[in-house]
Amino acid sequence: MDQKQNIEQFKGQPRLPKFAIPKRYDLHLKLDLSACTFSGLVHINLSIVETTKFIVLNACELVVHEVFFTTSLNHLSHTCLRFTPCDVVLNGNDEILMLGFEQFSGALNEQLKGLYKCTYADKGVRKNMAVTQFEALQARLCFPCWDEPALKATFKITLDLPSELIALSNMPINDEKINGNVKTVYFEESPKMSTYLVAIAVGLFDHIEETTADGIKVGVYCPVGKSDEGKFALEVAVKSLDIFTRYFSMPYPLPKLDMVAVPEFFGGGMENYGLIVYRENEILYTDSHSTAARKQRLTIVVAHEVAHLWFGNLVTMEWWTHLWLNEGFATWISYMATDIMFPEWKIWTQFLQEINGGLRLLDAQEKSHPIEMEIQHGHEVDEAFDAIGYKKGSAVIRMLQEYIGDEIFQKSLSFYIRRYAWSNARTEDLWSVLSEVTGIQVNSMMDSWTKQKGYPVISVKSKDHILEFEQSQFLLSGFHGDGQWIVPITLCFGSYDRIKSFLLESKSENLDASELFPTSDEQNEDEYGEASWIKVNIGQSGFYRVKYGDELHARLRKAIEKGFLSVTDKYGILDDRYALCVACEQSLSSLLLLMDVYRKESDYIILSKLIDVCYNVLEVLRDAIPELTNALKEIFINILLCSAK
Peptidase M1 membrane alanine aminopeptidase domain: from which residue to which, for each copy (predicted)? Predict the structure, then answer.
């Protein structure tokens, strides 16, 4: 069987065969920034675990010049045998290379992927910079490799580049040698990591640096003349390293962490081990020219990427199906870290606004998808980088944290990080650890949230101190889907000191809350007093909507009017009622009754929601019932003017 026939076995296969496992890459790249090309040499130490006549790995858009293998006769022998393959077959459609390789070359592309070029100005002259972006399947654009997250190896990188430029990679520089206009930079060997985390940046930079209490050198590389604009990001990175070191009970394992700002980059940031790459406008900040919103955005983005150093880099998803583990957790914990650094921002309230700002509407459509998407082939990975994995993933994690409790949740995550450090994990591995530590069957509960699309609306009614709960899948179309969840329900009775929680595991369930309802004396004292109202989903920590019966909703309106509820709960009640109105599950008149009790509201997040609701209602009615438009405008203006006072 020739190699062309051999490769037919692997066409369209989602994963590489496992008969050869990489252990170490020695990668030497020679960069020509003028010609925008590169050439290289890679030596890969392999472990052959099954008998095979050929080797299959990933390569894309590379020219392979020479291939050979060496092997010792036995583990004690210093004599090496050299084998030259009879054929080398590169299949571009499936991005796989049959057999092996040594010398290769390629072009610095302009598509912001693989090893690519971007341009910057140096004293008015446009120059080229070389940067890598290997997530998800793009290391193969730079060098032949086993380009799957589970096939971790160590990397020893050497670069040839113009002597006036700065070279950065995952690890510190071990040595430099200059030969005329070219210098060769040798980097220390990295710990085990996935190919998508390998990183290189070559260009002109200014540099600022701090050393953490643990001795980690943290540096920010900025465009020339803009080092002052990197100071705030440096401060956030140092604080984030300290927060996550304590939270995960695991020190950052590399000797340095560099962050580099580049002018052209596909995303906001990329968490490469030891060298995080950011788009310039995500990491540069000045007090005199940048907005408060930009400062908050920078803090969240930097904390997100630093969090990946543990959740993603140290413990990596086994395959792209579990991408949400990386992104959902990094999103959730970046808000947690931001809240620790800047509690005055009340960032969890803004998190709620972010989650509701489009995500819930997206996930309430029939075309939505589960958090955990089954990725059969690597080419499907890009579809998983969306708001469902990032934002909904982070929202259900926060819901789980609230249900389990902060302390035990932190303990569980620390245990998970220690168990799978330098290795790979699946979603079910995390649930297994959480179940083990907490004694709660987390698997079945969380599978209902990660393996099916959408979310529930919880209908709640009161009858003789019995609360009747019923769940159904919420859809904006007004129809009910067939989804069913295990829902952690939280509720309070007239006070945030009277709290009850339980799991709603079936379509409907009754809760006897007699001991929590006010006594007759309390009710007579004030019909809508502090002991009378019931709020479900305290702090909006649960990823579900709540539909109250008329009596319960009337009590909540009075509680809002009297100022008994928190900002997040007031926001949630308004947001839920508006969504239910859009889905034709509640009347417009019930929404207007609710909006009227927000007349004295002064909080930004609630006022923003009120304005959005007013605008959206008018947009719909302008065409549907134009004769009501002017009357509604008057109502909305009165509500907003009273709020503004």
Answer: 232-449
